[in-house]
Write a structure and sequence with these properties.
230 residues, mainly beta, four-stranded antiparallel sheet, globular
């Protein structure tokens, strides 16, 4: 589309809001429309008509549409939630309901996802905490979800070592895609950078020579036994 989103304090007295800008006309308008003083918000993401973001004040994920233009809590929950990613009506985020702490000091943070408007149907897709990751980055595209997480406790050598995981939505299958063990490149903390396009996962890691490069892998090669069709 032609709609751009940004988070800014247009009027410092009103606090931070989510704004939209028409890329063709340059016209900007307030999307979240929180009454002053607005909660601090970040991580705004858009897909089609729908926009989601992290709300500091409520420690929850807010949402609205380009038509409704009124911020609200989309994901009520028992603990901190942050870093939402959206693709069509599928939304994934980091959730600490299974652990303790907050966005700055998480212990036991996991990746949760939901499809559609019924947030009571949220489910966990990760199988180990994201605690060793400096930046919690999730990628969602089509039938795929990917994220960086810590190694399971029994495998940890250095807690900052991480792995890249992938989840296939239709079959509910989760698998490790890239680990920190040979022959895989080393996934450094905060540098997982998973991005998905089609069936391909893109990420940043260190190769055997210690050089940082961008890698690509076809996730279908890891899920061939559960995929149906060509």
């Amino acid at each position: 589309g032609t709609t751009l989103i940004s988070v800014r304090a247009e009027d410092p007295g009103d606090g931070y809001q989510v704004w939209t800008t028409d890329a063709l006309t340059g016209e900007s308008s307030n999307l979240s429309n929180f009454p002053a003083p607005a909660p601090t918000i970040w991580d705004a993401q858009i897909w089609g008509e729908r926009v989601v973001w992290t709300m500091w004040g409520g420690r929850r994920i807010g949402a609205t549409t380009l038509t409704e233009r009124s911020g609200d809590v989309y994901l009520p929950g028992p603990a901190w939630q942050w870093s939402p990613e959206i693709w069509e009506d599928r939304i994934c985020w980091v959730d600490i309901r299974d652990g303790t702490g907050d966005v700055y000091r998480p212990t036991g943070a996991q990746v949760y996802c939901v499809e559609g408007a019924d947030v009571s149907g949220a489910f966990r897709v990760s199988d180990a905490p994201l605690d060793g990751m400096v930046a919690s980055v999730i990628a969602v595209h089509g039938d795929w979800v990917s994220w960086a997480q810590s190694l399971p406790v029994e495998e940890r050598v250095v807690i900052q070592d991480g792995v890249l995981m992938a989840y296939h939505w239709p079959t509910g299958t989760r698998r490790r895609i890239v680990s920190d063990r040979e022959p895989w490149p080393h996934v450094t903390p905060g540098a997982g950078f998973p991005q998905i396009w089609g069936d391909h996962l893109y990420f940043i890691a260190k190769d055997a020579a210690g050089a940082t490069n961008c890698f690509r892998c076809d996730m279908r090669s890891f899920f061939g036994d559960v995929l149906v069709g060509p």
